Amino acid sequence: MSELVRERAVSFGPDAGLVGILATPGGGPVGDTAVILPNAGVIHRVGPNRFGVRIARTIAELGLPVLRMDLSGIGDSAPRRDTTDLQESVERDTDAAMAYLSEAHGARTFVFVGICSGARLSLRTAFRDTRVTAAIVIDPPAYKTARAVASHLGPRLVRPRSWRTALAMGNRGIVDLVRGAGGNAAEGAEEAPSPPAPSSWPDRLPEWPTKREMGEALDRLVGRGTKMYWIYTGDAVSQLYNYRDQLRDSFPEACASPHLDWEFLEDAAHDFPTEASRRVALQLIRDWLAASNLVG
Amino acid sequence: MAANVFYFGDSERRLFGVYHAAAGRGRRGIVLCNPWGGEYLHAHQTLRVLAQRLAEAGQHVLRFDWYGSGDSAGECTEATPPGSWAEDLGWAIDELKDIANVRTVSLIGLRLGAAAAALVAPTRQDVKALVLWEPVLEGGPYLDELTDDRASSLAFEDTVDARGFCLTGAMREAMATVTPDLIGSRQPPTLLLCGSHDPSRHDRIRQRLAEAGVEWADEQYDGPSIWIEEQFGSSGIPVAALKKVTEWLP
């Protein structure tokens, strides 16, 4: 960590039960925007392969305070006692983080940076709270396009072994082969992956939005000027995101907006296990923040 | 209960810690020594639960992150464990004694953290007990495990990617020197705690403990290897291991 960044441990929220690490620029924050990094899955606040720490320090070096936080029940944060609903719990946690940064550090607007489930949470928070003026989302939900399906299926359909396996499994095997079953991100069809939670759309973006819901959400977000950077890696949703402009082909209207940028890191794995992939992603984040006028 | 999180150490070596105060009038302290790299991430929840249970049983506990790992300052490439971890552990022991007002501590080391604990324990009179939990005390095989062809690739210069973390040449040199000979006659009473699958893999450590004349106990448990990625998030907490630790500690 450079001398430009100072880190301290903070507790906030109900009964100070939420834990985070606040990285602040050594020379003081630039402006009144703060950044929040929620957990990626059940990994605690350092992130997969400590990538969360690198992201936070990189952004803090650019002049923005960054809070890496543990959601309730993850890492060192206490479980919530005021709700058992997961979606409500994470919503209250992110509200608490924003309240803390507002009260303690004068933040008025926020940037969310999330990986995987953290990416979905970042989009949901941006959707419901206009104080979130930007989001960097890594491996958010992906949506099939004809080209993505063809890219995925093509090599399989010409491989004799695929057919042998499919035939051995009978009708189900052939159906699965042709449909390209696999992966767990949102389908291009209208129904969400099972089991579908009660949807609170359109007030709240669901955890796994349908393509229609995501399209409408993106339209709303770009319409209000929310800046977004969507980054996909090559393996997390590789069966469903396999070329750079798949996002544009999925949501052409939203992607025509200058507020929405995207990137496909084909050689990076979901958890950024290599130093090379981490460095590439960090540079992209630096460049995007600078180009978005979010940092000096 | 809200976690007591803070930084300690000095300005050149800021270390992150979590203090679990003892229930009641606890007079003993325990410092937990993390494993390296991805194993640390996967074991985090188990070690937190262990710390909570030990605190409920009347022990003051400090969990902390080695320099260059977790939330502590520094980059992964700046450490050469387990040797460089000895300084961090010294800071952690002093910090726990100060905040908990205890005079002695026990050390619990998991995997490579056990090597650091074994290095430090005989050098300090305030360390009264040592738990070696699935210890990595043979650096060569451990490095082979970290750098098998599937898991590693060259990152830059003499550094390789090893299961998501950078392994520098200096680190590999330091780890390669780890052998059961770390265990000396001045080791405090020691618990060797291992999973019940293939217990013979730690026979060299057992032999060394016996040779060194250390007062030691040998316990095995049925339960998941929580530092392994494939079991992370799905295997639960190894309650049998936690029970054996809690029952053995003085």
Count interface residues per chain for the largest interface: A-B, 31 and 31 residues
Percent helix of chain A, as a range, is: 25-40%
- pLDDT averaged residue by residue of chain A: 88
Distance between the termini of chain B: 25 Å
Head-to-tail CA distance between termini of chain A: 20 Å
Secondary structure tally, helices of chain A: 10
List its traits:
heterodimer; A: alpha/beta; 18% strand; globular; B: 250 residues; three-stranded antiparallel β-sheet
Write the SSE topology:
The complex is a heterodimer of chains A (296) and B (250).
Chain A: E1 5-12, E2 18-25, E3 33-37, H1 51-61, E4 66-69, H2 86-105, E5 109-115, H3 117-128, E6 132-138, H4 146-157, H5 160-168, H6 171-179, H7 211-223, E7 227-233, H8 246-250, H9 252-255, E8 260-265, H10 275-291
Parallel strand pairs in A: 3-4, 3-5, 5-6, 6-7, 7-8
Antiparallel strand pairs in A: 1-2, 2-4
Helix pairs in contact in A: 1-10, 5-6
Chain B: E1 4-10, E2 13-20, E3 28-33, H1 38-56, E4 59-64, H2 85-100, E5 105-110, H3 112-120, E6 127-133, H4 139-146, E7 152-156, E8 159-162, E9 165-167, H5 169-176, E10 190-195, H6 203-211, E11 216-221, H7 239-248
Parallel strand pairs in B: 3-4, 3-5, 5-6, 6-10, 10-11
Antiparallel strand pairs in B: 1-2, 2-4, 7-8, 8-9
Short structural description:
The complex is a heterodimer of chains A (296) and B (250). By secondary structure, chain A is α/β, with parallel strands linked by helices.
Structural features, described:
The complex is a heterodimer of chains A (296) and B (250). Chain A is built from 10 helices and 8 strands. By secondary structure, chain A is of the alpha/beta class. An 8-stranded mixed β-sheet of chain A has the order 1-2-4-3-5-6-7-8, with helices on both faces. In chain A, helix 1 links the parallel strand 3 and strand 4. About 5% of the residues of chain A have low confidence. With 250 residues, chain B is an alpha/beta fold. Chain B contains 7 helices and 11 strands. In chain B, helix 6 links the parallel strand 10 and strand 11. The interface between A and B is medium-sized, with 31 and 31 residues.
